[in-house]
Amino acid sequence: MAQNKQKKKPANAKKAVAKKPVAKKPVAKKAAVKKPVAKKPVAKKAVPAKKAPVAKIVAKKPVAIQAAKPVAVAKPVAAKPLVAQPAAKVVPAQKASYKVGNYVVYPTHGVGRIMAEETQMIGEIELRMLVISFEKDKMTLRVPVHRATAAGLRPISSNDQMKKVFITLKSRARTSRGMWSRRAQEYEAKINSGNIIYIAEVVRDLHQNVDQSERSYSERMIYESALARLVGELAASEATDHKTATDKLMKLLRAKIAAAPAAKEAA
Predict the structure, then answer these.
(1) Which domains, ranges and CATH numbers included, belong to the chain?
(2) DSSP string across 44-109
């Protein structure tokens, strides 16, 4: 009866399902991080400094001192009475006189004429100036009187000096086999020196090739510049015009060239 009294379980009741135990995954343990251990400083052993070698002291041998030789004392000589000699004559230097109207030669410009003499004030200094006109170049130059000679200004050559010029033109030409550029510098230096003999040498040396077609332009220009200087001074010295002076010089140079073959045949 007691069993009948037990309550009946509903038909819809679900049966209890036994749960399977879930296996747990093993958890990886973290590696232990080692802490850096501070190293103890190692004490360095002190190295003893090397001792410098001690230089041995060498005893020097005693130097024998020689006795000084007695110096002979010169006997005093009785001075002779001085005889008064005649004083040499002092020749005063001749200063070139530059007068208005005279022709002069300036080294780098050739023959010019003194047109006037004027006074100029440069600061607080008063200077006397020579006013020189160069007709060919159409130029006027002012030269201080006290510096005229030092600048190379000189009077026109005299007749005796012009005779030396003619002798130079008749002499044998100097032949040079060096480079033309070097010879051209020498010729230009002679022309700009203002020396009439040097200018005549340039004309003499370059005139022998005057008719050659192979002559360079620079050689012709140097020859014509030297010839113009020579003609200008000859015309001023002999008081003639440039045409007459040119004809005289060319006649002399042509006669020299014509006489050259005859001289060779005679030799």
Answers:
(1) 103-155 (2.40.10.170), 159-266 (1.20.58.1290)
(2) PPPPPPPPPPPPPPPPPPPPPPPPPPPPPPPPPPPPPPPPPPPPPPPPPPPPPP--TT-EEEETTT
